[in-house]
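Run: sequence + zinc ion -> complex structure.
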Amino acid sequence: MHKSGDVIRQLVDIGETPNSCWHWLGSVSKTTGYGKKQLNGKTLLAHRWVYEMLLGPIPGGLVIDHKCKTRHCVNPHHLEVVDQAENCRRSVTTKLTAEQVIEIKAAKDGKKWGEGARLARKYGVSSALIHDIWNGRAWK
Ligand SMILES: [Zn+2]
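>> structure
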């Protein structure tokens, strides 16, 4: 255990307090924002690698959600193992800001045909979510 802790410390800036984000010092994917770790010719996600080194294997099919929303953070205390469906649900509701939801709700009055799809493209969410917001099923 001591050994893996030393390996991790060289790759991570653990911040000033125990609750700080652990900033990954290795390479970070430009497209996803996640830290990357090369191991035995494979590219691993840095937060998954650190989590498994410190806390043990992540069960198959489960993904790791960043509670702190800092994608290159690898602090295991900021990570939570969730299933894929839960992770999608969370990212949908965190993708929009309160201001955007207000704009979407405002667009409901006098909306034209195709307005839902247009807003979905504008905000990068599904048109089903736009309709859920209009119908009060999401973001009440
Ligand atoms: Zn964090």
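>> summary
Residues 84-95 form the longest helix (12 residues). Residues 2-84 form one domain.
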